[in-house]
Amino acid sequence: MKSAEPTPQRGPTVGRGSRMRAAVLAATITELTETGYAALTVDAVAQRAGVHKTTIYRNWKTSDGLVADALAHHFATDIPIPDTGAVKDDLRALARALVATMTTSAGRALLTTALSDTARTPQLAEIKRALFEDRFRRAEPVVDRAVERGELPTDTDPGELLKALVAPIYFRLVFTGEPVDETTADRAVDVALAAAHAHALPTP
Amino acid sequence: MKSAEPTPQRGPTVGRGSRMRAAVLAATITELTETGYAALTVDAVAQRAGVHKTTIYRNWKTSDGLVADALAHHFATDIPIPDTGAVKDDLRALARALVATMTTSAGRALLTTALSDTARTPQLAEIKRALFEDRFRRAEPVVDRAVERGELPTDTDPGELLKALVAPIYFRLVFTGEPVDETTADRAVDVALAAAHAHALPTP
């Protein structure tokens, strides 16, 4: 988005507007972390960001729109895409980065937010789907390159492999309350690679 | 629990009390399905179950206690443990039963409830952990029998295999919004078995 005009969907992105946007989104993440989605108010975000609340309403319309944008911004920038030349190293880097970002207090708070009663907030449900699609799309070259190098079977579906990689990590984060650490990440890599080599993650 | 006395933790379990308990828990599940956890009231449950609300408070103390008991009751009885003599058939039966129960409107509502802001309701967080532990413990003999028959490596950890089995199913249910069906279940089985055969699910 290179326009100099504020965009209604995402807030302004350049110059003074860009700094305002960054401050508001950061304040939103902090508010989500400290007080949670249910108790979040535009007033509190505005105060923390040092802007007037009408500025927020003008750019984001609703608090749900603000939260959705803050989540999208956070999740679009927290995991770098590796290219080490070896699939196992690339997947370990991805899985470990996911574990690192999701086990911070902000990561846990944002996960809780994304899991809020999305039946009541369709905008959050939609942004959650879009966030995961975007994350997978950005990471798919890791699998494509491994297939090109002959490290993985040619029938490997990149999206399926990436879902096999992250599912055990999210499952532990959300449901079991077990420790989630680098061992969790590395095991998830072993499971995903074994599945790919056994042709259990084929393209449709 | 064979006592004829109502138990404060779980409500009464035999005779007239048992019928009352079944009616109240069923009413709670229906209320969770139709109106959701955030809007659930003991009044509405009492009316639907045909009991006085003081009966509910006497047996469950709080609405969170009631919800926790209803979830525990539902999740303890919805997936039968198979014993076909073949690990692939057993795991398919488990995974397909999980998909079947979690894709009903009640299943989705209960999943949403379990994912509610558990930071604010520690009782729900605790019951969620206990539910998953219980589910895995009941299914572990499926893996133990497969190891005894020589179908799986002796280093296979039953809990790790079962988590590898269900994680891709829950991941899709909770995060991606993709269809979840028997194909999802059967693929999850292929992934879990490939991982076990590659020794990627070892006992600690």
Automatic annotation (TrEMBL), chains A, B:
Q: Name residues in a coiled coil.
A: none
Keyword tags: DNA-binding, Transcription, Transcription regulation
Stored Pfam families? TetR_C_11 (PF16859), TetR_N (PF00440)
Where in the chain is the DNA-binding region found? 41-60
Q: Which domain of life is it from?
A: Bacteria
Residues annotated as transmembrane: none
Q: What InterPro entries does this protein map onto? A: Homeodomain-like_sf, HTH-type_TetR-like_transc_reg, HTH_TetR, Tet_transcr_reg_TetR-rel_C_sf, TetR_C
List residues of the HTH tetR-type domain.
Answer: 18-78
**PANTHER family attached to this UniProt entry:** HTH-TYPE TRANSCRIPTIONAL REGULATOR RUTR, TETR-FAMILY TRANSCRIPTIONAL REGULATOR
This chain belongs to which protein, by name?
Transcriptional regulator, TetR family protein
